[in-house]
Amino acid sequence: MMFESELHKSVLFTRPAATVDEYVGQLNDVLTHLLDKCTLAPTRCLRPQKPITKWLSAEAVEASAHVSASISESRTDHYRRRIQESGSDYRQRWRIVNKLLHSKDLDKTRTDDEN
User: Fold this and answer.
1) Where would you tag: which of 4, 25, 27, 42 has the fewest CB atoms within 10 A of its CB?
2) Which residues have C-beta within 8 Å of that of residue 12, sequence separation ≥ 6?
3) Mean pLDDT of 45-71
4) Distance CA 61, CA 73 (A)
5) Whose CA is closest to 73, among 62, 84, 81?
């Protein structure tokens, strides 16, 4: 919440730039500053190690990471291929992109005013 609170106090909300280019510059500056500020904050506690990694060997953890990367790459290739195959069918392409962006999902964590 600190990040969100600081963001709302920033020039992005208090004195937004007049042009898109200037606003992009402001956005870059503010986000860089806030991310640096948030990442430099001291951590309060460390997350406990996941139980599965306690008994997995280094080779098993590495293999798991390789499998995860392979699955991610496969998913990326699948959607890239679907987008390319849609060619100039913009309706089909839009359906694929919407599925990727989960645009039908409703975010229930914030009110409309917060969004």
Assistant:
1) 42
2) 23, 26, 27, 30
3) 77
4) 18
5) 81
Stated pTM of the model: 0.42
Cβ–Cβ < 8 Å for 11, 27: no
Please give the average per-residue pLDDT across 18-30, as a whole number.
Answer: 87
Give 62's pLDDT tier (boundaries 50, 70, 90). confident
pLDDT score of 32 more than 80? yes
DSSP structure string for the chain? -HHHHHHHHSHHHHS--SSHHHHHHHHHHHHHHHHHHHHHSPPS-PPPPPHHHHHS-HHHHHHHHHHHHHHHHHHHHHHHHHHHHHTT-HHHHHHHHHHHHTTT----SS-TTT-
Please give the structure tokens belonging to residue 45. Answer: 């506690």
Q: Please, how many CA atoms are within 13 Å of residue 47, restricted to the half-sphere of its CB?
A: 3
113 against 60, higher pLDDT:
60
> How many residues in total does the chain contain?
115
**What's residue 64's pLDDT?**
85
